[in-house]
Amino acid sequence: MTKRLKITNSSIKALQVEDGRVNDTELSGFHARISPKGRITYYLFYRIKGKQVNFKIGTHPEITPTQARDLAKIKLGEVAHGIDVQEVKKEAKRQTIIAKQAKLNSYLEQRYLPWLETRNPKTSDKIIKEIKRAFPNYLEKQLSQIHAWDIEKWRIEKKKSGMSLSTINGYVNTLKGALSRAVEWNIIESHDLNKVKSFKVDNAVVRYLTDVEEKALRDALKERDKRIKVERENGNLFRQQRHYPLLPELRNFNYCDYLEPLVLLAMNTGMRRGELLSLEWMNVDLEQKYLTVIAGNSKSGKGRHIPLNNEALVALNNWQFDTTNQGYVFNGAEGKPLTDIKKPWSNLLKQAEINDFRFHDLRHHFASKLVMAGVDLNTVRELMGHSDLKMTLRYAHLAPEHKAAAVNLIG
């Protein structure tokens, strides 16, 4: 015969195997059962849509009678609102099973990307693309099948191919972050990528242009501008002879396209490529001679004001096509910001015969020139948008010849 008692610690302790079950006298449907082996489990009985359900709440002593009753009250409240809590539990279990079998590609698209978009929507797509580009052979692997040894072999291959150690570290750390989030969300129990230790990188080595290289780059920009303008004139002559529509003449413009003003602005402001390409005319004050990097476009999430020196000011004045100060400074297609500058930048470096130099290194060049000119490091930090002085020391170190000149002052 089923007992009717208030389910408490005392009544649970007194429950015998032969009792089988005890119904709570305070909460209808709440009861406890004892198995032949003495295992006690709490349940909630309810009816919904003509169906009778016995919902498992938990086992003793993992939860106490009081905790079990409180949870039963919550579930009864959900049932009262038409929710079949048993079906909800089953669906959650099904989704957990599906998630645990998830492959990297589907996890990135369906779970990780939506979460990243809530954190920083401007970098979310970039992070996903980086993982996919770096680890294409892992996209169809289940998350639980991605192991440290696999990544170690990948690192060895990339190092042999000439990929920089810092780039390898960046890719691996991005993947680690994605898998660690999967652990937090109980999609996988664990991952062992923390065994993959980052390569040690000499962060004191910062690439900047020598005086000879800077002159070569500037000369290459001028030669490129002349060449493209001549090519446009010759092309229009060809079109005119055949009665084709003519393209806009470039000889009336200061620059044939965006590349020269973009490079000059990078060299004279130290802005990141993303900050430059997302810069809008409304954030440029040519009269007061400064521009504003808004917080949403900054890597640090903090806005900053950058004074415009004479060369940067002239470059922007000569480039400005829209006097209404609308839109992006460097427009792409359909009024969207410019995104891809790899090909023209690569061709420019070849023309200038400059090796091992990225567009981002123009930022290092800016900082190094400031330090070598005697600008204090805190001012450099503010102009660069670094969160602390440690980053400034890393990116804006002095060239060896300037260090030598400094110690020679007291020689």
UniProtKB/TrEMBL annotation:
Residues 8-92 form the Integrase DNA-binding domain. Coiled coil: none annotated. Keywords: DNA integration, DNA recombination, DNA-binding. The keyword Zinc does not apply. Residues 262-401 form the Tyr recombinase domain. The keyword DNA-binding applies. InterPro entries: DNA_brk_join_enz (IPR011010), Integrase-like_cat_sf (IPR013762), Integrase_catalytic (IPR002104), Integrase_DNA-bd_sf (IPR038488), Integrase_DNA_bind_dom (IPR025166), Integrase_recombinase_N (IPR010998), Phage_Integrase (IPR050808). Belongs to the 'phage' integrase family. This is Site-specific integrase. The lineage of its organism: Bacteria, Pseudomonadati, Pseudomonadota, Gammaproteobacteria, Alteromonadales.
